[in-house]
Write a structure and sequence with these properties.
2 helices; four-stranded antiparallel β-sheet; 39% strand; mainly beta
Amino acid sequence: PVSVTLTAVHFADEKNGWAVGHSGIILSSNDGGQTWKKQLDGLQANKLMLDAARASGNAAWLERSENFDKDGADKPFLAVHFSDAKHGLAVGAYGLAFATDDGGAKWTPVFDAAPEGDERHLYVIHQTAQAIYVAGEQGMLLRKPLGQGSFHKLNTPFRNTVFELQSTPDGALLAAGLGGKLFRSDDEGQQWSEVNLPGKASLTAGAVIKQGVLLASEAGQFLLSADGGRSFNPVNVPQPFPVSGLTQTADGQWVLVGPRGVLAMAVPNLQKN
């Protein structure tokens, strides 16, 4: 029902999914993506932010909401994630963040996703067994325990923009992004160590697959770890191209999404180069 650029999609189950994009758009589907309806747009989002800020009495939140309202419906959502068919979070440019606990019938602004007036862009949402993480521009990383509390900013040693968060099978957290930088944490984001990788192309997609942890870059490079993200080796693919998303199907195929469309392929030769 819209004609704006859509930037992210997430399904909580086979039927219920959400897509987000420019102009503050949130769409929902309850039939596996066959049909969609609009749940939120930028004008509605601005009004909800103003109403919530006024009710809170928080001067900083009010100033921020007034600035958003003056700019109009120009802020894009860049990521969306649902823990189940009821509880979801959408984040985007300049700290834009909204949450729902009723499947999107009502969306509520999340002001603590832009702590202390920090309005860096938010690009990715990742959920673990313990918490929800939101990451973005210039090393921004937020954490909220599942089912309680609010987001708080984690101190990180990296200043590169984060485009991808993944959890390894042994529970470590990986943050990948601009300039081919990758960092690993074994304590839920409190301490980090850098993982040395070949190349400097920005890492834009990742997934935990049957063969290990797979990362892909905007230059079409693929890297695979079989040791929980401690080291990675290049993988040759038959038709490398820039990747913005990837996953693995039940029968083992890799599915890659990028500027050239969608490509499904058999697992390539995984021997070291």
